[in-house]
Amino acid sequence: MESVSVKVLLIEDDEDDYILVRKLLSRITAVRYELQWAPTYGAALEIMANDRYDVYLLDYQLGDRTGLDLLREMNGTGSAVPVIFLTGHEDYGVDVEAMRAGASDYLVKGQISADLLERSIRYALERRRLEDRLRQAQKMEAIGTLAGGIAHDFNNILAAIIGFSEIAAGRIPADSKAQRSLKRILEAGIRGRNLIKQILAFSRQSEQEKKPLQLSLLVDETLGLLRASLPSTIDIRFDSADQSGLVLADVGQMQQVVLNLCTNAAYAMREKGGAITIELSDFSFLAPGEAPHSLLDPGSYLKLSVSDTGDGIAGDILHRIFDPFFTTKKQGEGTGLGLSVVLGIVESHGGAITVRSEPGKGSLFTVYLPRVFKDNRKTSGRGEETPTGKERILFIDDEEALAEMGGEILADLGYEAISKTGSRDALELLKADPHRFDLVVTDQTMPEMTGVELAGEILAIRADMPIIMCTGFSHLVDADKARAAGIRAFVMKPLTKGEIARTIRKVLDG
Fold first, then answer.
1. Does residue 458 contact residue 430 with C-beta atoms inside 8 Å?
2. Residue at 332 is within a domain
3. How many CB atoms lie within 10 A of CB 89?
4. How many domains does the chain have?
5. How many angstroms separate the CA atoms of 328 and 324, rounded?
6. Residues 367 and 396 in one domain
7. Three-point CA angle 225, 226, 229, nearest 5°
């Protein structure tokens, strides 16, 4: 609060009381208060409709109306500005009624001192901030729940698009126009899958998993998402001197680091425009004295720098920018959590972050993350051979299109496959002949019986049956819970043909 002014509206029909409040606020030196006076009920309504205040000081008696009437009218408009009630006499009944109507505090004019008034305003503002944080947390929880539901349904749609595209592509000439069209469809499906993963990561609905990550690709993809949300007056430049450097990191958290740093930079240039420059390069040092940050040990790092041409950060608050809830943004424009989240993520990955800024010359944030190196004995991803097999597989999904797709992909891979859309029908097949199949692939979210429940029934019939679980999204099960239930592999839809093939061989051969 020390770095900003507080706008106060006094709604009071007695000029002497206005002069008193003005004097009291002028004695407070720690905070600058901007006071405006509304002498009537109607004037207050007009001013509140056309301007923004941090707090209202509201007299109880306003001519032939009362402050309680005005407070209730404000509540009807959805106003969230904290209200401190003022009255000339102690009245417990008015006190209780005001607090029930939403007032933050209740003060008796004859007992008000500068210190008491300041404490009351501080309390009202802090209560408002806490309420805002609670509302934001509730919004994020609702968004997360919605994201999970969307993810499940949309991933099933994408699974059909990706699966049938690959099936069709395998059955037509490689150089045909249709083949090129199918390739575009497949690429769009993969982009959609990646977008859903990002939504789940940002809403904290996905597992947090650290794995070797090519940072240059992640930054490039994240900037592609960010560009659409920035005004045309802000230019984004990305320069990567290292195209193959790896860090051991969680994809969603690293995206959050890039997004938070870039959106902060964009905010600093919101009025005049400018440029955000992102640079990625190698960095290493041998002696502790050469470390750019005390948390870093000698070694090899990837250095991610985000700079802007904005207004910069004043020196007297530079040391506070990573503090939780500290912000220089106007009320309602930021929570003060962005940089503290970045700091937490970076340090949890064994890295560090530094900042350099001057007023009028922009800011430079530099993230250092420990580099990891490829194991050349292992390969993964695109270009990897698609394994085949001849085993018998039972494929279960309650969506008919996905059950059909799964059966066709497995047949193309050489397997003898039977598809079922009902978990109970599949269970009856296994009860009739427990050794008819070598592997079961099942969906998790099904109407009659969930995948976990079905797995339990299958393992009760045949304890050594390998089971792979696929899901578009589930609040009820994750990889750890699936493993605890005896399931050999847990994978997220949609999968490409190659990913399905490798998962199957890993389970059957492993």
1. yes
2. yes
3. 10
4. 3
5. 12
6. no
7. 110
The CA distance from 389 to 508, in Å, is 10
- Chain segment 265-283, per-residue pLDDT in tens: 888 888 888 999 999 999 9
Tokens 């509304």 correspond to 38
CA-nearest of 279, 326, 336 to 304 is: 279
Three-class SS of residue 113? coil
How much is the pTM? 0.51
Rounding to the nearest 10 degrees, give the CA dihedral for residues 263, 267, 270, 276. -50
Residue 170 falls inside a structural domain: no
Angle at 138 between CA 134 and CA 143, to 5 degrees: 145
Please choose, from the candidates 445, 448, 444, the residue with its C-alpha nearest in 3D space to the C-alpha of residue 485. 444
Q: Which residues are CB-neighbours of 354 under 8 A, at least 6 positions away?
A: 292, 293, 365, 366, 368
Domain co-membership, 431 together with 372: no
Q: How far is CA 149 from CA 144, 157, 205, 222, 253, in A?
A: 9, 13, 11, 23, 21
DSSP code, position 165: H
pLDDT tens-place string over residues 309-344: 988 887 777 777 777 655 655 544 444 456 877 888
Provide the 10 A C-beta neighbour count for residue 348: 13
Q: Is residue 81 part of a domain?
A: yes
Structure tokens at 172: 């037509």
Residue 315, classified by CB atoms within 10 Å of its CB into exposed (0-12), middle (13-18) or buried (19+), is exposed
Strand-pair partners of 308: 276
pLDDT digits 0-9 by tens, 457-488: 999 999 999 999 998 876 677 888 889 999 99
Domain residues for the domain of 79 are 5-112
Largest Cα–Cα separation, the chain: 94
| Cα distances (Å, whole numbers) of residue 93 to 49, 60, 111, 219, 370 | 29, 12, 18, 60, 63
Buried b / exposed e across 351-363, counting CB within 10 Å, b at 16+?
A: bbbeeebeeeebb
CATH of the domain at 470: 3.40.50.2300
| Domain end marker among 378, 413, 442 | 378
> Which residues are registered as beta bridge partners of 208?
none
Direct distance between the N- and C-terminal alpha carbons of the chain, in angstroms, rounded to an integer: 60
How many whole angstroms separate alpha carbon 81 and alpha carbon 103?
Answer: 10
